[in-house]
TrEMBL record:
Species of the source: Vineibacter terrae
Domain of life: Bacteria
Keywords: Oxidoreductase
Signal sequence extent: none
Family affiliation: Belongs to the short-chain dehydrogenases/reductases (SDR) family.
MF-aspect GO terms: oxidoreductase activity
A Pfam family reported for this protein in Swiss-Prot or TrEMBL: adh_short_C2
Descriptive protein name: SDR family oxidoreductase
Amino acid sequence: MPRLDAKTLIITGGASGIGAATCRLAAAAGATVVVADLATQADHARQVVADSGRHAVFMPLDVTVEADWEQLVDDTVARFGRLDGLLNGAGIGMAQDIESCSLDDFHRVYRVNGLGVFLGCKHAVRVMRASGGGSIVNISSVLGLRGTAGTPAYAASKGAVRLLTKNVAVHCARHGYNIRCNSVHPGYIETPMIASRLTRSVDNMTGRQHLENLHPMGRLGQPEEIARLVLFLLSDESSFSTGAEFVADGGLTA
């Protein structure tokens, strides 16, 4: 596992799923971790902090509110002296096709998954420039790479994350900021986001069987498997990687 000694990281969506797994592994690898999530998720976030040890703290964040981002990054730098890495992991999903997805639903998904990542990148770059650089990792999805029916809002938001990542990466590289930005594209990962889909019936099989069958490896991914990839990208071991797409999907896109 990559070492992250002396690095300070912000991980959004840190109360559950991929975010929580990344918090725990990052703390074990030596990082100071800010577990950022909604105030309503405070109990779950504090459990992640307890699991992560003395180098983790919870700070509330609504990723759709710019003032929250300003407060979070400024408080992080004031408390720990610098910001070295950001995982934009907060996200929501919605399974509705193009005919049934309302404008309000589209906006709700896009605000979290798209706008939230934009704001995170914007304010991370602001403080990372001052502290000598860093690494930003944005969680996109295989649905940001390939077409599917039934998830227009989610797919549009994750496709936006993919290209926003490249824009941030090139901007920072061209300006010599020493800030890298990469996107991670998971397949279906066994997290609370897809829990309701696992038990419903699809084509005479359980939702779990249906999703497992989409992956040539024949199973769902685990949050820790994505977290380990994220840690590589947050570490100095990925120092020549920026603007890239890292796919971890059990062969789904292949």
